[in-house]
Specification:
single chain, about 700 residues, alpha/beta, six-stranded mixed beta sheet, six-stranded mixed barrel, 27 helices, 25 strands, about 30% helix, about 15% strand, globular, binds ligand MGD, binds iron/sulfur cluster, binds molybdenum atom
């Protein structure tokens, strides 16, 4: 790529797994490196703001430890770069193809499991691995690690994964951030909240088990016990009905409201919810009053409160509130969980090779990779074991639950592992072959966005660093070696993008590139479901049809509220552990950058001071957290912003950052949650003790 003799600014998009999907203005310096990264001012959602870690993005892109050459492991698994030797791309691709072919020859195609997630959210680079999978009939992946429970809960009531335009917050008088921490996880929400507060004196309420940065900024913080949101939501509903803050005409016209639901809410008193949530009756009453008295109330629903065995029920119960008050009818009123369903109209056949999809091929649950690799029959049935993994865009050795089992599986000597990565992650260190990957600055892509409504097109800002290749290039080169024919593998990434736009009847991709994005925002009436909810009967469902939503749907309660199915504390496990995201990391991304590491310090267990003194724990002491699955050793931090029986460990640190070399997910469970699965990262009962 020809360079300029001065710094120039080029458009891009943040690729990370974050609802904000910021539009970026990126400086390219005369030496071909990226310089400053800023949020695009011209994008009405990004509004010139990015988080601190991406403002420092050149530190990650030009990091001295970026993987720049293909590597073959010649020593021990799980150690790191010293155990690898450099090889050529041809040797590496031949070795990967050979590994996959040999496994298939022995046990059939389902023994091979291409495994990926959202290290980049770009559709072409993230989802292209599916084209390889479907053509070969390799085992399919059920992606459950993040959104499954939240999706189920939202869709159960509303019917489709979309909601308010987040820019409408500017017109809201009350914003309720429920189970999310945007100060850390999607900073742009705070921009729009700040605007509403400044211009209209809007109030901010945060529902979160600990005093996060967002809670600190709030007018009211409901610091409940983790997993009890359904009870809080039902009690708020009770007060809204009792005090006539409900809209009876709206309920009759737009929902399935009936006497059974009415009677149910009558039983959900604040006193009852106080016992369960640990909040006082006054806190519940005053929140309900504020919510009931404010028609322009924007419920911003996060993921955090759904990462629990009862997470789908919690989400559905909270989503009932704007249906009770009828807030949906007003500007700035209603709810947003995610808008990513808006892009479902864009057909991804070319990107994902859906023309080769064979639904008779087995599906394995992403979050259950630990049990799967250690031979759990509940997952494998009569099918073959997984003996070959090809991994892109994810770091399962750290991020997946039951990580002692994940590690055991990766350490098996009868499994072939290829990892395409930017860094020597814990997962890459387990590989037989590592392929070096480009970053979003070095390849082309398109991005939808959960937190807003833009659909972005970008081209690379700089040339690939070292010998890095993009996922699309690697998948195409592997396809040739595996004997796969599909038109998507004969196109470069940009052509896949152009064709996808053309085949969907969208604007020409080059035009969108110039415009930077298409805004998919819907007209007011549709965004607010004023023509009816996208359910077969056109009504919001207080009574979801859970059994139709998944094999465990019949476990779910018929009516909205508290579902007491979670990892409750017990005499043996008297604490509830939340593994919330760390501000300076993005999952495990940025755990390699010095500035993020410096700011985060070390893994710490936040323990209430009263609890600590009962257990003889002082600030900075080494403690052990444990349950029937495992133990982790880390330092204690005394923190008063949580209930006495709650512990928070901000995550996700590499395993080696913990004192016994095993990270927090040793404690989290891979149990399948109702109705249709989903990981339960904040639903763990543990014991805590001082380490000697
Ligand atoms: N800095 C940073 N940003 C990130 C990420 C990161 O790791 N770091 N991860 C990215 C990804 S992949 C995602 S999906 C999003 C997730 O972003 P969020 O929607 O913010 O969701 P969570 O990360 O699950 O947790 C957010 C909050 O939920 C709270 N929480 C936990 N359990 C409960 C509960 O039972 N009830 C209630 N009310 N709250 C609860 C936690 O304490 C935490 O403060 O963020 C993205 N952005
Ligand atoms: N305890 C606990 N565990 C959690 C969570 C939690 O809150 N608590 N959150 C969960 C959630 S919500 C999620 S989404 C998962 C996320 O978990 P992961 O999907 O594993 O996310 P990351 O850890 O960011 O890893 C993404 C990897 O992709 C690589 N990558 C980025 N771009 C590219 C590319 O273009 N090509 C290739 N080949 N690689 C690329 C990055 O270098 C990085 O190592 O973690 C889950 N795990
Ligand atoms: S807020 Fe999220 S999307 Fe925006 S720059 Fe940071 S990580 Fe990327
Ligand atoms: Mo996620």
């Amino acid at each position: 790529m020809p360079l300029d003799n001065k710094a120039i600014t080029l458009p891009s998009v943040c690729p990370h797994d974050c609802p904000s999907v910021c539009a970026l203005d990126v400086e390219r310096l005369p030496d071909g490196k990226i310089g400053k990264v800023r949020g695009a001012k011209s994008n009405s959602y990004t509004a010139g703001v990015v988080c601190a870690k991406v403002a420092r993005y050149s530190e990650r892109v030009h990091h001295p430890e970026r993987l720049l050459k293909p590597l073959r492991r010649v020593g021990k698994k799980g150690v790191g770069i010293s155990e690898f030797e450099e090889i050529s791309w041809d040797e590496a691709l031949d070795a990967v193809a050979d590994g996959l072919i040999k496994a298939e020859q022995k046990l059939g195609p389902e023994t091979v499991w291409p495994y990926f997630y959202a290290g980049t959210m770009g559709w072409v680079q993230r989802d292209g691995i599916e084209r390889l999978r479907h053509a070969k009939k390799y085992s399919r992946q059920y992606s459950t690690i993040c959104i499954t429970l939240a999706d189920a809960g939202w869709n159960a009531g509303v019917g489709e994964k979309r909601g308010l335009d987040p820019r409408e917050m500017a017109s809201s008088n009350l914003i309720v951030m429920w189970g999310g921490n945007p100060v850390s996880t999607q900073v742009n929400v705070m921009t729009h909240i700040a605007k509403a507060r400044k211009e209209r004196g809007a109030k901010l309420v945060v529902v979160d088990p600990y005093r996060t940065g967002t809670a600190e900024a709030a007018d009211m913080h409901l610091q409940l016990r983790p997993g009890t949101d359904g009870a809080l939501a039902a009690a708020v509903g009770h007060v809204l009905l009792r005090d006539q803050h409900c809209d009876r005409a709206y309920l009759a016209r737009f929902t399935d409201w009936d006497d059974e639901i009415e009677d149910h809410y009558k039983t959900c008193t604040p006193a009852w919810a106080s016992e369960i949530t640990g909040l006082s009756v006054e806190e519940i009453e005053s929140f309900a009053k504020l919510y009931g008295q404010t028609k322009r109330s924007f419920l911003r629903l996060g993921y955090g409160f759904t990462r629990s065995r009862n997470g789908a029920a919690n989400m559905q119960a909270a989503a009932c509130l704007p249906a009770i008050t009828g807030a949906w009818q007003y500007e700035g009123g209603g709810a947003l969980y995610s808008n990513s369903g808006m892009y479902n109209s864009v057909d991804k056949t070319l990107i994902m090779g859906l023309d080769n999809l064979d639904t008779s091929v087995r599906v394995l649950d992403q979050s259950r990779i630990g049990p799967i690799l250690t031979g759990d029959k509940r997952d494998l049935g009569d099918g073959p074991p997984v003996t070959a993994l090809f991994i892109q865009n994810t770091n399962p050795v750290v991020v997946c639950p039951e990580s002692n089992k994940v590690r055991e599986g990766f350490l098996r000597d009868d499994i072939f592992i290829a990892v395409h990565e930017q860094f020597m992650t814990d997962t890459a260190a387990m590989a037989d072959i590592i392929l070096p990957a480009t970053t979003s600055m070095e390849h082309d892509d398109i991005y939808g966005s959960g937190g807003h409504t833009h659909f972005h097109v970008t081209r690379k800002v700089i040339d690939p660093i070292g010998d890095c290749r993009s996922n699309h290039e690697v998948n195409s080169a592997l396809a040739k070696r595996l004997g796969i024919e599909h038109e998507g593998f004969d196109m470069d990434a940009w052509t896949v993008i152009e064709e996808t736009f053309k085949r969907n009847g969208l604007k020409d991709a080059n035009q969108v590139l110039e415009d930077r994005w298409i805004d998919f925002a819907l007209p007011f009436e549709e965004a607010h479901f004023l023509k009816g909810f996208p359910q077969p009967e056109g009504r919001f469902r207080f009574k979801p049809d859970w059994p139709s939503m998944g094999p465990l749907g019949d476990k779910m309660p018929k009516l909205p509220g508290y579902f007491d199915y979670y990892d409750q504390k017990s005499e043996k496990h008297p604490f509830r552990l939340v593994t919330a995201p760390a501000r300076q990391f993005l999952n495990t991304s940025f755990t390699e950058t010095a500035s993020s590491l410096k700011k985060e310090g070390r893994p710490q267990a936040k323990v209430h001071p009263d609890q600590a003194s009962e257990l003889g724990i002082s600030a900075g002491d080494m403690v052990i957290l444990g349950n029937d699955q495992g133990q982790v050793r880390l330092h204690a931090e005394l923190f008063s912003g949580l209930q006495k029986d709650t512990i928070v460990v901000e995550s996700i640190w590499p395993n080696a950052a913990f004192n016994d070399g095993m990270g927090i997910n040793a404690l989290t469970s891979a149990e399948v949650a109702p109705p249709n699965g989903g990981a339960v990262f904040h639903d763990t009962a543990v014991w805590l003790k001082k380490s000697n």
